[in-house]
Structure formats: C-alpha cells, structure tokens
C-alpha cells in the first residue's frame, strides 16, 4: 500500500479565511434575525450590598420596552435560581455557583441584577438608567489575603465562608529536604488580576422557533453542549428542544468557557416572550462581568544542594477566586501542580487558600493557572543561580527531567485523580537549542559595549511545561455523502485557532481525500449528541484523535466494500483523492461517493455483504492523561534606567507541541500566546480600589500589547510525539503564555544586575522598575 | 423642531453604491452600517475608538466608525471591508493575509485591512516600523501581529510588481 | 454602551454654528469626535443637543497671517502632521503631533477639539502653551483673543463660555534655525502621555542661550511654563551640566497624582525629559553637545 501524500504536517492555508477576509464572517451579532429584541442589564454599582426594593415602573413605562425581569420575576421562569454546579458533586457546595439574578445580596460590582428587554439596545439602556434599587451597602473583602483573617468581612453572607477551600499539594519529605539543604532561597511573589478581552465580547441570540418548537441558540461560546445542557436544565426543556450553534467566535481565551447568568436570563426571556432576544456584551460589560484570573500571592522557598540540585520546594499560596467559583478550584490546583515544571523535584509542599472576595469570579484564562506556577518556579531557579553563583542556564540543566526518563510519573495527581505523568519531551535539548540561537557570548559583548554608552541591555530565559489535551473525550464524526463530500462533525469549537482546517487535514489524510473535499462543522449540538468544547489546549488532541480514528474507520469500511465491488483484496487497495483503487493500476477504481450510495441502501436491492449502513463513523476518543508540551523562551531587553521604560528587543521561543498538524497555525498560536504573556508580564493590570470598585474599565486604562510593543518572535519547533493519543499531538494554544513573565523578569534583573533589582511582581511596569532602581540607588 | 425620536435623511455612497437612508440622531456610523445596511463586516469591539475593529475609509481616509454618528456620513464616500475585493479577486493585502496566516478569529481583521489599504495606497515601500506604527492603532488578541506585518510587506512587494 | 437620547444639529457655516450655540441650551459641539464620542458612548456626557461643526470649511486652514501662523480650530491633526508650512515654521509641532493618538484618530481629530477638551496630557495644549499661543474665540457678532495662559483655566476647563466657539489658534514661529526638542513618556505608542516636555531655544552669535521656552504637560492640570528655569538659562552656554541643573527643580510643582502615575513618578520623569528636550533643542540650535 502506498503512502498517501502528507497532509498532516502541511502548512496549509486555512479554509476559514476566505469569508473572514471579506467581511463575510458570521459572528453572533451578525446573524440576521428580524424582530429580535435586545437585552441590557442593570448591574450592581457596589462590591457588596443587601438588595432591597426594586422599582421598575419608570423603566417599564418607557416606549419601546417590552419586559423587565427582576430577580423574583426571573426566578419564576427557571427551575432553580442558581446555575447548576459545573464540577464534581461534593467538591464545593452549590452556593459556589452564582444566581442568574440574585434576589437578596450582590457580591461584586458589575453583577447582573435586573434584565430589560426592549426593541433596541439603546432603549434598553435608557430603561436601565430608570431602574431604582435600594442597596444596603455591606463591608467588602477586596484583598484576598485578608480572607485568612477570621475578623475580616464575609464576601457573601448567604454562604458565610471566607475560603472556598484550603488544600495542600504535597509529596516527599519537604521538612527533611530543608534540613539537608546546602542553600535555601525564598521568593514572595504577586500576580495581578487580568482578563481575557477577546476583541469580540460575549453574546447570545435565542430564537424560540415557533415552527419547530425548538429554542435555537447562537452563542459566542467555547462550550455548545454544556450551554445546551444547562439551558435545558434551567428552563425545564427536553434535550431535543434546545439547539446551540456556535457561529464564528471572535476569540475567547477562557472568557466564553462558562454558562453565564446572562445566557440563562436571555434564553428564559426569549422562551416566555416567544420572541427572539439577543444580548451582545459591550467592552464595559466585559470589564465588569466577564471572568477574570491571575491574581495570586505566593510565598515559597526552595532547598538545594551545593550543586544547585533541587531537594524540595515548600510554601503558601493565596488565590483570589472572586465572589463565586463556577469551575471550583481548577485554577489554583493547576497553579499548584504546575510549579515543578520540567524539573526533578523530590519533595514538595504547597498550602493553598482559595479566597472568596467581592470581585468578578475566576475561571481559567489562557494558561489556566500554569503561568503563575511557572513564574514561581523560574524565579526560584534564578535565585538559586544567584545564591550559588552558578549560571542561570547551568542550574536548570542540572535539574531537568532527562529525555530518557520519559514517560516521567510525577508524584502528583490531576483533578480527575489520574497521575500527572509527563508523556514525552526533551527539555535540555530545547534549552540548549534556543540558547545557541540566542548566541549568549555575542550578547554579552553587545551588553558590555552598550553599558559603556550608558545603555542597559539584559537577557533572560525560562522553561515551562503545559498539560494539554484534557479529556475525558471529544466527539468526532466523519461522514461521506452521496456526492463524495466529506463532513466532519464535532463538539469541539472554533474560536480562531483554525480548528476546522486542522480537523480537515486530519480527516483528509486519514481518509484519502483532499482538504478541499472536507466540510467541518464545529460546536452545533444538532450534529453530535456529546461534546465538551474548547479549553485547556485540548481540541487537536481529543477532537483530532476522534476525527483521525473515525476517518480511518470510514476508510477501512470503504475499502472493504470497494474490494467486493472490484473483486480485489482489501490489502491491495488504497484511497487517493477520494478514489479507491489499486495503486499503479489505471482504469478500475471506485469513488467514495459510490460506496456511500451503496451504503445508503435501496429497499429491495442487495446491500453490501457484511457491512453496516452508512459510510460514516463516530468516535469519542477517551483520554484521562494529559499530553505535556514544553517551551523554552529567551528574551532580550533594553531598560531605560532614568524612566523605567522596558523595551523588548529580541524574543526566541522554542516549543515542543508533539506532532504538528499544521506548523503555520502552531506558530500563530505561539505568537498569540506569547503576546498574552507579554500582556501579563508588562501591561495588564485589572485594578480595584479599596471599596472593590474596578478602576480600569476601558481599553485605554487596561493595556493590551500593540504591534509597537512586540519584537519579532523567532519560533523554533521540536516534535516529541505524545504516546497518549494516536496522532502523537499535543496542544499548542496556551504554552506560549507560560514562560514569558519569567523570561522578561530574568532579563530585567540581568540588565540591572549592578542595581541588584529583584522582580517579584507582574505586571512589571516602568513605575515599579523606577521604584526598585530608586531604592537601589539609595542603598 | 426635530426631536431625538425623529430621523435624519442621509445620502451616502458605500463601496461604490449609493444609499438613501433614514437614521436615528444618536445612531453611530458603525451601527448604521451593520444594522441598516447589513454590512456586518465592520465590527464593534470597544466603542471607544481604541481597538480599531470598526475602522473604515471615509472619503479615502481611515476613521473609527464607532466615533462618528451616522448623520455625519451624509455626502461621504465610504469603503468597508466588503468593498476591498474587486470583481471577486481579493485585494493583495487580503491575499497576503491568507498566504501568511495573518488572521485567527478574524474579528479585528476588517479594521486592520482598511488601515493597511490606506498605508499601501500612500507608501509603495513601507518599512516594518511604519507598518507597526499603523498597526499600533489596532488591537489583536490572537495573532501577536507578527504575520500581519509579514503580510503587509508581502502585499506591498506584490503591488510594486508591474501589472501583467 | 449606546448614546443617551440626543438631538443632532448640523451647522453649514460658522454663523449658523454660532447661532445654534447661543440659542440651544445644554448643547455640546461635535468636532472630530475622538474625545467626545467615547464619552457619549459611555454616557459620561449626555447633552441634550449636539452641534456638528465638521462642515465648517472656514475653520480648516493653516496659513501665515503677518507674524503668526494661524490654524483653524477644525484643522485635522492629520493636516498638521503633513503640512509643509508647519514643518518649516513650527517644527516642534510637527514633531509633537506624531505622538497624538494614532494615525486613525489623527485623521478626524482636530486642533480645536484637543484644545477645548484640555486633557492635562494633551500634546497640542502643551504646544500652544510653549508658543504663547493666542486663541481666537467667536460668538454671535463678536470675537475675542485669549492668550493660552488665560484660556487654560484648570482641569479640563477652558475660558470658553457656553455660547462661544474656538475658531482659530495663532502661534508665533521662532526664527529660522532655532532649536527645538520634544519628549514624552507614554506606556505604548499613541497612549496618553504620562508627562511631556517641549523646549524652544535660540543661541546668540557667541553660542549662548539668547531665548528659551520650556513647557511641561501631564504634570499639572494645565500645561506649565518654567519661567524661573528659562530665566536661569539666558545668557549662558548650553552645557550638559547647566541643562541638567535647569531641568532639576520641580518641587514647586503641585503634581497630579493617581495610582497609575503618582506625583513623585511624574516629577522624576519630567526632570529627565526636560533635560533630554533641552539637550535636543541646544543641539538643533547649533550647540556642540
């Protein structure tokens, strides 16, 4: 059997682009829906308050207003007032979930309290301004560290806990490790809140189709099936009466990986009004009510021997979870278990407090808690190097898990209880290759020359490991139609990462057709009954594997049927460009379309012997183990010591994401992830004042990196195939974020070595840097 | 005396086609394009003029459609992303974006295409620094801008080639 | 957010605009819209009426008027950026304008709009202050000239009455061959300046400072001149230590202060940027630095 042309691994141009480039994309706000009503929300102006009387009379009287839903009115439309738990039973109480509209108490500025439905968004907002609510302001808990103090206020009176949970990740004998240590280094780190800010905000359009009796929902979401499931549950509708379609999604990065109160409220209104209702989040709402992440305080120390080899790490971490925990403790758990990274760490003990605060709730944003764990470990490694006067690179090389010890079982378990085992990777190779590219000796020369001119250049680097391909499964169906076109259906979702192209390549390669022959439909609950969605860099692994297996199954089936038609042995047949034939033998061949026709069946005529109906296959590739990708970044900076301004002058990123389906798209993911990392490291700071009022609520105050802030990113790729899935792939969507903050911090410390500056906080701003330089000057 | 509920007549040419429409006083140009004319290629990302997703050409010059009222578009000629391709052939910058993987989710893309079209019309050989400066007026959360810069350089080179 | 209900008026001539302004209560003028529309879009401003003056061609000009360069209030920032006359006669303005927002906002943003908005960080306000600019203010059947120092009254508040319209700005160019320097500190390209500094300088035949003007932006609620520092520099040779010493005294300034940029930070930056702008100006004026 000949090998079909390599489509996997091809830098194929994307099938998504033609429409998007010509303004023909269909994002949720683009879906034509004549007569659609528009929703707007009254949002809490206070971080914590009891809710008293609500007066909607003036709002209802405004011409163009169709309905106003107070919490009690909304509750009467729902089977339960709170969103259902989205985590395993017993992990946290049901009070960790938000209300759709809270009746008694509001717990963060921006929380939706009343919904107005009107003929236009403008009128709905006019009505919002007319709603009056009696608030009894309550003390708010803003600084998550205060949640450890029994005297501090409770963030939520209805669920009077200060911590959602307190847990420990521990293995080995940390106490002994610190007794045996040659040297101990300590870091106290702080990472600020940030948000996802996809350029398209959230949005939902619900059409109660009277003709079919189905609630059709278009949502800018990362989880169609979960949304459908939740709406069914909250509205008391059977599964067959709710359909969720993910249209084009304008980025998500975690902010659309949740069923929000607004989603349920809009659907409930549409259902009862029997009119289509839509809600399109504006940027201000994203600041006030879309999930946030990143804020953690770490106090950790590392014990090492005289050679800088790690003996143990221990410490505490306080995680700001916000007012609710709809995804339980996923983020802090990821942060805690990601600290060891690529290193052999014999003992570990981290005590984690997940604090409830009067701020927007937290779920994973791109990186999902791993950036914080990586930052902690990489800062510790730099300190070890400094304390022992060992080169920063050398100390890492002495601690990496060697390639020949893969798969490497760490002593930790993931949140499903399965062991965290690194499947494959060559950390030392990535480190050495990237540093060679960086030409460290050449840099040192340039650095010295620059210093003589009063210019401060620095170089830094960091390593990271990211778990990807989270299970338990994803759906994939491959179906050949009577016209020979191949359809791929999956519960996986596109949000810009080129999923359709990637799955199209996998299917085309597996089946033996061209990419152009494949149509991929993602995230439409009417095509697949089960699906999980897009998060945790999982879809190429999970959906990709399902589609791969389904394509191979369809291929085998088609060959068997064609073998009988051609009177050939199946082993002699191959499929190329949709034609089943003996390679090299011209003339005889059966197009896939013909096989599909045969397997459609014609009543009364002979059905192909031994075959099941239909030329299609469905797989739900099951996986509990993650596939671990790794990265090594090198960063050069130029620091202006008079103003604190930091300029990134060079950035090298070496990534191993296993087998690559489309290297061009993987590079794109790495670029994007790195720029998110630069945002975290230097620009993004979601500020709250001491009353819990958000003070950065526009994109002029909350800074995202722009094209003039980013140097050219040099991407180097390595492929260590993963043994945990049939394609050998690993996810690539998030790994770019992880090592950025540490690389930049390390580079700044290198530039300012003479000042002994220590970076313990991100974002690192010119203001922070100037403060550190001033302090050093005084010393 | 008009009230805020009355409408204003607007005559505007968009992508070469004349429109006579009635707009609300407070309606922005961005919302007018999207809602009245179903030209949904122009996107709204921030309503503050920062993200650049709503950028269109007004009389050949780039402008934030979210910072103009629809009424102000009267007697102007507007180009949106839907007007860049010519007789089914992609503009060189659109082609270059496709070749270089310069878009991911595509939401910020139309505004960026418009700004780059403006730049490429004015500069036959834009430098990377000039391209990045023009791009600094746009936010992209997906691509990291790198492939966008590459596409702009490629499109400029292609446009400098003698026409066949 | 969407705008609050508002009534839109379009003025076709200056006269029409002035009458609308004086006859319409609770009205705001819509010029380039790059500052006003964001506020309207957030309902931070909700006037009952908007008067669109974008059709007032008579306010869109850059020309020599005797000893002045007169620029109409509706001159687009873009026009200033590409003006040969400005490049030749007001080179510091040509330099500073490229820091105002982004190309896309300069296309519609106007000189007058920026001056009337009077954000403490506005580069154009700094320039008007540095050049001792004169504002031409019109109302029905009247106009008056207001020096910039009186026009800029306080935090985002000008001397304009509710029935007045800024129609032009007059700047007196410095002699050919003068030195100029402009520095600003911003987090990203096109961002609001944290602080900014503009310097104009001429040297006499013996290379000593004959005339100098220093203006600071973003440090106080309105742009500030530094008369003491300016006086101190006159008649002296522009050496590095002199310029550094002139840039140093900032303790008299009641600096703006917020979480993003506390007062000490602004003052430290302004010292550094003043020195850098003085050095640039001296070099351009011919000093051997």
Descriptive report:
- The complex is a heterotrimer of chains A (779), B (164) and C (289).
- The longest helix of chain A has 28 residues, at 539-566.
- Chain A has 779 residues and is of the alpha+beta class.
- Chain A has a 7-stranded mixed sheet.
- Chain A is built from 19 helices and 31 strands.
- With 164 residues, chain B is an alpha+beta fold.
- Chain B folds into 2 domains: 7-83, Beta-grasp domain (Ubiquitin-like (UB roll), Roll); 92-160, Orthogonal Bundle (DNA polymerase, domain 1), CATH 1.10.150.120.
- Helices cover 33% and strands 16% of the residues of chain B.
- Chain B contains 5 helices and 5 strands; from the N terminus they run ββαβββαααα.
- In chain B, strands 2-1-5-3-4 form a 5-stranded mixed sheet, sandwiched between helices.
- In chain B, a hairpin with a 2-residue loop joins strand 1 (7-14) and strand 2.
- Chain C is of the alpha+beta class and 289 residues long.
- Chain C folds into 3 domains: 7-51, Uridine Diphospho-n-acetylenolpyruvylglucosamine Reductase, domain 2; 62-171, Uridine Diphospho-n-acetylenolpyruvylglucosamine Reductase, domain 3 (2-Layer Sandwich); 180-285, 2-Layer Sandwich (Enolase-like, domain 1), CATH 3.30.390.
- A 5-stranded antiparallel sheet of chain C has the order 4-5-10-6-7. A 4-stranded antiparallel sheet of chain C has the order 11-12-13-14. A 3-stranded parallel sheet of chain C has the order 1-3-2, with helices on one face.
- In chain C, helix 2 links the parallel strand 2 and strand 3 (49-52).
- Chain C starts with 6 loop residues before the first strand and ends with a helix.
- Classes of the chains: A alpha+beta (779), B alpha+beta (164), C alpha+beta (289).
- At the A-B interface, helix 1 and helix 17 of A face helix 2, helix 3, helix 4 and helix 5 of B.
């Amino acid at each position: 059997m000949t090998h079909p042309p390599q489509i996997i691994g091809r830098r194929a141009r994307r099938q998504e682009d033609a429409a998007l480039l010509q303004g023909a994309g269909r994002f949720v706000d683009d879906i034509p829906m004549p007569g659609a009503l528009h929703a707007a929300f009254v949002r809490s102006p206070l971080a914590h308050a009891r809710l008293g009387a609500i007066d909607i009379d003036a709002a209802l009287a405004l011409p163009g207003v169709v309905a106003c839903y107070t919490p009690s009115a909304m509750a009467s439309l729902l089977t339960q007032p709170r969103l259902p738990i989205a985590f395993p039973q017993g992990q946290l109480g049901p009070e960790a979930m938000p209300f759709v509209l809270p009746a008694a108490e509001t717990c963060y500025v921006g929380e939706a309290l009343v919904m107005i439905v009107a003929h236009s968004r403008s009128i709905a907002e006019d009505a919002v301004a007319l709603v009056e609510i009696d608030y009894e302001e309550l003390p708010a808990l803003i600084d998550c560290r205060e949640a450890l103090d029994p005297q501090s206020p409770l963030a939520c009176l209805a669920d009077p806990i200060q911590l959602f949970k307190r847990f420990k990740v521990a293995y080995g004998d940390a106490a002994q490790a610190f007794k045996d240590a040659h040297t101990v280094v300590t870091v106290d780190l702080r990472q600020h809140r940030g948000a996802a800010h996809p350029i398209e905000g959230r949005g939902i359009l619900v059409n109660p189709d009277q003709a079919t009796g189905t609630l059709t929902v278009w949502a800018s979401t990362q989880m169609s099936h979960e949304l459908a499931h939740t709406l069914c549950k909250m509205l008391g509708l059977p599964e067959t009466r709710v359909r969720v379609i993910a249209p084009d999604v304008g980025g998500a990065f975690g902010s659309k990986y949740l069923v929000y109160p607004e989603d349920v409220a809009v659907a409930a209104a549409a259902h009862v009004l029997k009119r289509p209702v839509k809600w399109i989040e504006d940027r201000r709402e994203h600041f006030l009510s879309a999930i946030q992440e990143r804020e953690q305080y770490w106090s950790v120390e590392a014990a090492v021997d005289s050679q800088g080899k790690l003996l143990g790490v221990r410490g505490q971490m306080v995680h700001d979870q916000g007012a609710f925990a709809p995804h339980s403790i996923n983020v802090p758990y990821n942060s805690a278990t990601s600290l060891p990274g690529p290193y052999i760490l014999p003992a570990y003990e981290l005590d984690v407090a997940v604090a409830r605060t009067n701020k927007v709730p937290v779920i994973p944003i791109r990186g999902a808690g791993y950036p914080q764990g990586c930052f902690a470990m990489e800062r510790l490694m730099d300190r070890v190097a400094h304390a022992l006067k060992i080169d920063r690179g050398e100390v890492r090389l002495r601690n990496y898990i060697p390639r020949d010890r893969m798969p490497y079982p760490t002593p930790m378990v993931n949140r499903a209880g399965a062991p965290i085992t690194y499947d494959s990777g060559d950390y030392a190779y990535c480190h050495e290759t990237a540093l060679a590219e960086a030409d460290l000796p050449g840099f040192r020369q340039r650095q010295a020359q620059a210093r003589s001119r009063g210019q401060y250049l620095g170089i830094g680097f960091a390593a990271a490991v990211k778990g990807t391909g989270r299970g338990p499964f994803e759906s994939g169906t491959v179906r050949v139609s009577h016209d020979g076109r191949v359809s791929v259906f999956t519960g996986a979702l596109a949000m810009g990462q080129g999923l359709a192209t990637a799955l199209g390549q996998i299917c085309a390669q597996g089946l033996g057709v061209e990419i152009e022959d494949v149509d991929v439909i993602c995230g439409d609950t009417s095509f697949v009954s089960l699906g999980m969605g897009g998060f945790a860099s999982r879809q190429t692994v999970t959906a990709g594997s399902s589609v791969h297996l389904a394509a191979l199954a369809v291929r085998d089936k088609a060959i068997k049927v064609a073998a009988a038609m051609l009177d050939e042995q199946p082993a002699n047949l191959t499929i190329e460009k949709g034609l089943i034939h003996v390679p090299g033998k011209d003339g005889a061949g059966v197009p896939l379309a013909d096989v599909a026709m045969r397997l459609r069946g014609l009543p009364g005529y002979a059905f192909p012997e031994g075959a099941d109906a239909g030329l299609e296959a469905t797989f739900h590739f099951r996986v509990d183990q993650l596939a671990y990708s790794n990265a090594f970044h090198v960063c050069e900076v130029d620091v202006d010591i008079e103003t604190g301004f930091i300029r990134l002058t060079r950035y090298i990123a070496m990534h191993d994401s296993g087998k690559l389906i489309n290297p061009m798209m993987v590079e794109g993911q790495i670029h994007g992830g790195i720029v998110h990392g630069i945002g975290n490291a230097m620009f993004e700071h979601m500020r709250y004042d001491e009353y819990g009022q958000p003070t950065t609520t526009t994109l002029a105050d909350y800074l995202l990196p722009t094209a003039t802030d980013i140097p050219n990113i040099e991407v180097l790729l390595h492929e260590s195939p993963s043994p945990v899935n049939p394609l050998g792939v690993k996810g690539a969507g998030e790994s770019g974020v992880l090592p950025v903050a540490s690389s930049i911090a390390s580079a700044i410390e290198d530039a300012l070595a003479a000042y002994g500056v220590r970076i313990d906080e991100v974002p690192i701003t010119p203001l922070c840097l100037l403060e550190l330089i001033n302090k050093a000057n005084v010393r | 005396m008009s009230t805020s509920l009355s409408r204003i007549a607007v005559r505007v040419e968009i992508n070469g086609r004349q429109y006579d429409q009635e707009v609300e006083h407070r309606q922005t140009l961005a919302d007018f394009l999207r809602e009245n004319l179903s030209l949904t290629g122009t996107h709204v990302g921030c309503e503050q003029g920062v993200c650049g997703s709503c950028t269109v050409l007004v009389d050949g010059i780039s402008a934030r459609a979210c910072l103009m009222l629809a009424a102000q578009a009267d007697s102007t000629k507007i180009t949106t992303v839907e007007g860049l391709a010519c007789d089914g052939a992609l503009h060189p910058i659109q082609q270059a974006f496709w070749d270089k993987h310069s878009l991911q989710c595509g939401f910020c893309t139309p505004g960026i295409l418009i700004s780059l079209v403006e730049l490429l019309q004015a500069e036959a050989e834009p430098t990377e620094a000039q391209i990045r400066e023009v791009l600094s007026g746009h936010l992209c959360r997906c691509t990291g801008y790198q492939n966008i810069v590459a596409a702009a350089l490629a499109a400029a080179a292609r446009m400098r080639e003698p026409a066949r | 957010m969407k705008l609050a209900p508002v009534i839109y008026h379009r003025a076709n001539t200056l006269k029409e605009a002035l009458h609308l302004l004086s006859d319409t209560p609770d009205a705001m003028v819509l010029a380039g819209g790059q500052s006003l529309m964001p506020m309207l879009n957030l309902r931070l401003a909700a006037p009952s009426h908007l008067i669109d003056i974008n059709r007032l061609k008579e306010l869109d000009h850059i020309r020599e008027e005797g000893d002045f360069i007169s620029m109409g209030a509706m001159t687009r920032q873009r026009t200033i950026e590409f003006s040969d006359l400005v490049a030749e006669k007001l080179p510091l303005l040509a330099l500073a304008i490229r820091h105002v927002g982004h190309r896309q906002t300069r296309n519609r943003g106007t000189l007058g709009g920026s001056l009337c908005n009077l954000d403490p960080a506005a580069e154009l306000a700094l320039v008007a202050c540095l050049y001792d600019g004169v504002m031409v203010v019109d109302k029905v059947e009247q106009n008056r000239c207001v020096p910039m120092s009186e026009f800029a009254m306080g935090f985002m508040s000008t001397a304009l009455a509710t029935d007045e319209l800024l129609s032009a700005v007059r700047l007196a160019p410095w002699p050919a061959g003068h030195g100029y320097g402009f520095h600003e500190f911003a987090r990203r390209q096109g961002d609001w300046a944290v602080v900014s500094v503009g310097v104009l300088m001429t040297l006499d035949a013996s290379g000593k400072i004959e005339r100098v003007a220093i203006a600071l932006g973003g440090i106080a609620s309105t742009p500030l001149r530094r008369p003491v520092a300016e006086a101190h520099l006159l008649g002296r040779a522009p050496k590095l230590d002199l310029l550094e010493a002139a840039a140093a005294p900032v303790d008299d300034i009641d600096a703006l202060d917020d979480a993003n940029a506390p007062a000490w930070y602004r003052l430290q930056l302004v010292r550094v940027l003043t020195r850098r702008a003085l050095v640039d100006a001296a070099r351009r004026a011919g000093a051997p630095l």
